[in-house]
Specification:
It contains 4 helices and 4 strands, in the order ααβββααβ. By secondary structure, the protein is an alpha+beta fold. The two termini are 16 Å apart.
């Protein structure tokens, strides 16, 4: 799994995250900074039309964290997620990596 390799996760981590879903809203108060983000579409268990989008961040110290697993890979879904980020944190984002 490409996402697992990129994010330094174990082989079963990504399917486990997808199976459980990350449905809890992000507690943005936990973040003092948000400079780097990653977005990646992942094909689900049911073939090429079953997608999820992972949104991750990496702190200045290199700590990685999954912020969300969104259903589908549509622009509107990703835009809605980014709109949920408080303005004080959005202003700090310097890098967004995506293969979409």
């Amino acid at each position: 799994m490409d996402v697992g390799i990129k994010e330094g996760l174990g082989y079963e981590a990504v399917p486990g995250i997808i199976d459980r879903g990350v449905s809890e809203p992000v507690d943005w108060n936990e973040f003092k900074e948000l400079q780097q983000m990653g977005i990646d579409a992942i094909a689900g268990k049911h073939g090429r039309w079953d997608f999820f989008t992972s949104v991750t961040t990496r702190s200045a110290t290199g700590v990685r964290r999954v912020l969300g697993v969104l259903e589908g890979r549509e622009k509107g879904t990703v835009k809605q997620f980014f709109s949920s980020i408080p303005k004080r944190l959005r202003k700090m984002i310097r890098v967004v990596c995506s293969d979409m």
